[in-house]
Design brief:
Low-confidence stretches: none
Number of strands: 0
Distance between the termini: 22 Å
Order of helices and strands: HHHH
Helix content: 55-70%
Structural class: mainly alpha
Mean pLDDT: 94
Number of helices: 4
Largest sheet: none
Radius of gyration: 10 Å
């Protein structure tokens, strides 16, 4: 997974309540974790839908 693939998602995550280790989006496990957990602390964030779209594009198994 390259920075080119995850750059937009990483940019969106900078303004969200996400653990620092997950903001790096270094592995496919990070993508899946974010798909399951991103909305828990960020459901009212104005960019949550854009982040969900990026997670789906990157192959998250479950995007809540």
């Amino acid at each position: 997974m390259s920075t080119n693939d995850t750059g937009r998602l990483q940019s969106l995550l900078e303004t969200m309540n996400v653990p620092v280790a997950r903001k790096a989006v270094a592995t496919q496990a990070d993508i899946h974790w974010l798909g399951r957990n991103l909305a828990i602390q960020n459901s009212a964030h104005p960019e949550i839908e854009a982040a969900r779209e990026e997670l789906e594009r990157l192959g998250a198994r479950l995007v809540l």
